[in-house]
Amino acid sequence: MSGSRRPVILTFFAACAYGFLYLPIVVLIVYSFNRDGVGGFPPRHLTLDWYRVLFADGSMWTAVGNSVIVAAASVVISILIGFPAAYALDRYSFPGKDAFRRLILLPLIVPGVITGISLLLLVVSGGFRLSLITVVLGHATALTAVATTEIFAGLSRLDRSYEEASADLGASGWQTLRRILLPLMRTSLLGTALLVFTLSMDEIAVTFFLIGRENTLPLEIWSRLRRGATPEMNAISTLIFFFSVAAILASQRLIAGGETSLTPSAEVAGVTQ
Amino acid sequence: MMRPQRSGALLVMLPPFAWIALFLFLPYCLLFCYSFWTVSEFQQILHHPTLANYAHLFTNPLYLTVILRTLRIALSVVVLSLAIGYPLAFFLAFHSGRHRALLYQAVIIPLWVSYLVRAYAWKVIFGNEGVLNTLLMWSHGTSHPLSFLLYSPFAVIVTLTHIYVPFVVLPVVASLEKIPRELIESSNDLGARPWQTFLRVILPLSLPGVVSGATFALLLSFGDFLAPLLLGGPASVMIANIVANLFGADYNWPLGAAVAVVILNIVVAILSVTQRLERRWRTA
Fold first, then answer.
1. Residue A208 in 3-state DSSP?
2. Where are the alpha helices (DSSP H) in chain A?
3. Is there a contact between B85 and B169 (Cβ–Cβ < 8 Å)?
4. Which residue, of A256, B46, B71, B78, is most buried by count of CB atoms within 10 Å of its CB?
5. How far is A41 from chain B (nearest CA, A)?
6. What integer pLDDT is reported at residue A39 of this predicted model?
7. Is the confidence at residue A3, as pLDDT, over 50?
8. Are B216 and A92 inside 8 Å of each other by CB?
9. Residue A32 and residue A242: Cα distance in Å, rounded?
10. What is the DSSP letter of A46?
């Protein structure tokens, strides 16, 4: 158990586990360059044609645009709601606090289908039409739970003495928030925003029930997969993959130093609190 | 706990409270109401409360069959995720050496890859003309494509396992790293064999992490409907697919709402069991 000698079997097993995690991603990338479609071993006739097809595909890029708008709106809303919610959970004691926490974290564990259909019932009962706005509503509701757990984790790591000093020196609550708390929470909020953005760009289960005429990217891909796959899907998936990895690396450089909360592990922790 | 100024606290709590009331509490109430309504033959929703939907659910064996199948699939996913994830977490916590940060990051990166993309990738691998079958035929492993790979519970289980392994690894690594090294060393010094140290010291102390990862994998795979739609055949229809169908092509929202209420209850039941387990093991 000293850690100096590596048990051969365990190391081999770990290598296989990494193989399992990365096999689909590698396959996806390799076959995005395969002229003769998806599958078929060995891949041959490598080509960039599928990327050309993809870049000329107007409806795919419209869907990307829609997804970016939805994700940006979801980030703003989930932080505007999640920050005060996390603050209240961290700092205040009030009647019904436990129920409040359970309710706001519920979308983390409740299947997306249920969040989706219950919001659909609300939208229909209110007489509204399905559109990207209802999609934003769904994402924001589901992802506020994520934002709240992430921000809560950030707040509870914070050293309170700065805020206390600020209050002692006569700053108002608003001034302390703006000058002390928000700057101290910058990394945590950036990490949260990035996580929410990525999750929103990928959301399907809730979106499925709230989508109107305009597709988000995952739903556009989804509807095409149902009709039959082409390597164009591999090409867009490859781009999404590299974009995600670049986003993680960039954010880690941005947030260099402090402990990053760029994993959904806080979600896992939040579920079982 | 700071003593908040009354007005400030109210101002802080108003937005989240309003949001929760409007977009979580109210929709769940609506779901509950709908589950007692019915649909006429002209597809009109009748607002007379009855227990007809629940009676239908509990008398028609189809629903029980699907729920049991869903639980079976979800449990298989949990077992496989633990079988792959625990040793990987153990490796990361104790034997990853100099490259620990990199290896840890390598577990997280797949989490950031789109769910849809990963599910689709397995479809590419398992299909009749897929990578695995053509590889087998190319290497003369088989003469016919193995058609049981795709459109089966097997494909659904592999895909969901692939998605939830990192969710198991992360909390298990966290709980393994919290174990004081002196405990392990003293167990070794007192003459315990490595496997005894593992079974008596390390494993019990890592159980809280195992439970949180397993709970997450269990609940999320229990509610999944996309993997069965994309990779499963008729034999892998899961309970959330039934809800999706009732809200889609089959158009019976009230019955769908009743199924959803049942799912919600199962989720809450699973959660209360695992929370109790975790609390016991954390204090033990």
1. helix
2. 8-31, 49-55, 58-91, 97-109, 112-125, 132-157, 161-168, 173-176, 182-184, 186-202, 207-210, 217-227, 231-254, 265-271
3. yes
4. B78
5. 5
6. 65
7. no
8. no
9. 13
10. B
Superfamily the domain A59-215 falls into: MetI-like (1.10.3720.10)
Which residue, among B2, B3, B26, B114, would best test binding to A if mutated, counting the most A CBs under 10 Å from its CB?
Answer: B114
The Cα–Cα gap between B284 and B278 comes to 10
CA distance B107 to B119: 17
Other CB atoms within 10 A of residue A242 CB: 11
Classify residue B202 as exposed, middle or buried by CB count within 10 Å of its CB (0-12, 13-18, 19+).
buried
Is B261 a member of any domain?
A: yes
Here the ipTM equals 0.89
Q: Measuring CA to CA, how many Å separate B117 from each of A52, A63, A193?
A: 20, 16, 22
pLDDT tier at A255 (50, 70, 90 boundaries)? low
* Shortest Cα distance, chain A CAs vs residue B61, angstroms: 22
A263/B108 Cβ within 8 A: yes
Q: Chain A partners of B216 at a C-beta cutoff of 8 Å?
A: 109, 267-268, 271
Is B153 inside any structural domain?
Answer: yes
CA distance A174 to chain B (A): 9
Q: Which residues of A60-76 are buried (b: 16+ CB within 10 A; e: fewer)?
A: beebbebbeebbebbbe
**A9-23, B54-68, B136-150, B153-167: least confident range:** B136-150
CA A226 to chain centre: 24
- The span from the CA of B167 to the CA of B111, in Å, is 8
Q: Do A20 and B23 touch (CB under 8 A)?
A: no
Mean pLDDT of A214-228: 88
Phi, psi of B39 (to 5 degrees): -115, 135
Q: Do B170 and A268 touch (CB under 8 A)?
A: yes
Task: For residue A57, give every residue at least 6 positions away whose Cβ sits within 8 Å of its Cβ, in sequence order, or none.
Answer: A232
Q: Per-domain residue ranges for chain A?
A: 59-215
Residue B269 belongs to a domain: yes
Global pTM reads 0.88
Among the listed ranges A127-136, A252-261, B112-121, B156-165, which one has the minimum average pLDDT value?
A252-261
Q: Burial letters for B56-80: b for 16+ Cβ neighbours within 10 Å, e otherwise?
A: bbeeeeebeebbebbbebbbbbbeb
**Is B18 contained in some domain?**
no
- Structural domain for B78, as ranges: 51-283
- Using the beta-carbon criterion (under 8 Å), do B121 and A42 form an inter-chain contact? no
Rounded to a whole number, what is the distance in Å from the CA of A6 to chain B's nearest CA?
A: 6
The domain tally of chain B equals 1
Cβ-defined contact of A17 to B88 (cutoff 8 Å) = yes
